[in-house]
């Protein structure tokens, strides 16, 4: 396979995988009420259909990325996307809510396999200075899927029931998996060590963190919450100590000690937290304060998705012209401004003001996501691209959970409390802008890249 065809394969897989995961998350939200009624499930059980998936994904992303570094991202992607298709179909046939929860955890495992692989394949296929546009197109796909999900999911649930939404991703996932299996692209593998103790410690850290954050909106600050955070801290310290002492750590030293990478990950964590916290509070405002139904609420938020779809390719151009630092800081400033403007919305605000806030939020979010993701992936050598992709995906999974936890803690009820919570989220965006000042000034500024160091390209197939 020539380099151009290899790039097209990587881009197709990256777009498909990212869109499937985004679509799955949004359609499930629409299907949950119908699922609860049909399976006579409790509210807690329905919540675990999301929580179980999220915990499985978040705890395995980095290790899954390392598996891609070791055995080839195309192989791991094929395994992940085919497993995602099978578990999706199985959920649609599940006889009870217990089966749905268990299969959702399994789907999370396969989702963890495919997500870092999408970025790892892009890193292996494209020169480091040409990653901006492929990542931007991947971001556009995420935005389109997120916008389409509630509308498509609502129509399917209304006409065919909740099970139909889980069959939605089966055909495209199977197609992407078969394409990855039969394509004659080189399988880039390496002899990197699989640090199982490190993967276990990181997994425990993230399980404790995500479980605690997910439960915080329901339980508030309790002894169990404090214990969960204490366990998170203890496991995190143990992980860091292990990584510093082991000869071949899960996260390579060039990634672990890179100020550029850690700053970019911090930016991704903060911007995703602000976005999802603001969306949570915005949904509360639209439905509880203005009394709109879910469909009309979704229509008010469509400018955000439109900004992501249209703005992602533009962001790649901005990244190349103005560099990561200025693009990220400007984007975070827009996110902070949009969040502050949202805090000023009240019962008298019109559609233009509301839509303008969501448009500004999306216009700020998309260049930050494209730029910070490009920095994380570009800074990695091909040898550690999977780990870097796993770290990026971890930040993008933990950030939203953190943002919703902050929003629900600060604004349990009331318009005034909502404004305060949005002001705090704007301060978080300002912190992200501060982290953005530590990114490279120019798109060409990066550490020396041992391109393919320790890697070997083979013509074998998965």
Question: Any overview of this molecule?
Answer:
This protein is mostly helical. It is built from 15 helices and 2 strands. The protein has helices at 3-38, 43-71, 73-92, 97-125, 132-160, 164-167, 170-182, 196-219, 223-245, 253-256, 259-289, 294-343, 351-379, 385-410, 415-436, and strands at residues 187-190, 455-458. Strands 1-2 form a two-stranded antiparallel ribbon. α1 packs antiparallel against α4, α11 (259-289) packs across α12 (294-343) and α13 packs antiparallel against α14. Mean pLDDT is 86; it is low at 448-462.
List the helices and strands and how they pair.
Layout: H1 3-38, H2 43-71, H3 73-92, H4 97-125, H5 132-160, H6 164-167, H7 170-182, E1 187-190, H8 196-219, H9 223-245, H10 253-256, H11 259-289, H12 294-343, H13 351-379, H14 385-410, H15 415-436, E2 455-458
Antiparallel strand pairs: 1-2
Helix pairs in contact: 1-2, 1-4, 1-5, 1-7, 2-3, 2-4, 2-8, 2-14, 3-4, 3-7, 4-14, 5-12, 5-13, 8-9, 8-14, 11-12, 11-13, 11-14, 11-15, 12-13, 12-15, 13-14, 14-15
Keyphrases for this structure?
mainly alpha, disordered C terminus, 15 helices, two-stranded antiparallel sheet, 462 residues
What's this, in brief?
With 462 residues, the chain is mostly helical. The chain is 80% helix and 2% strand.
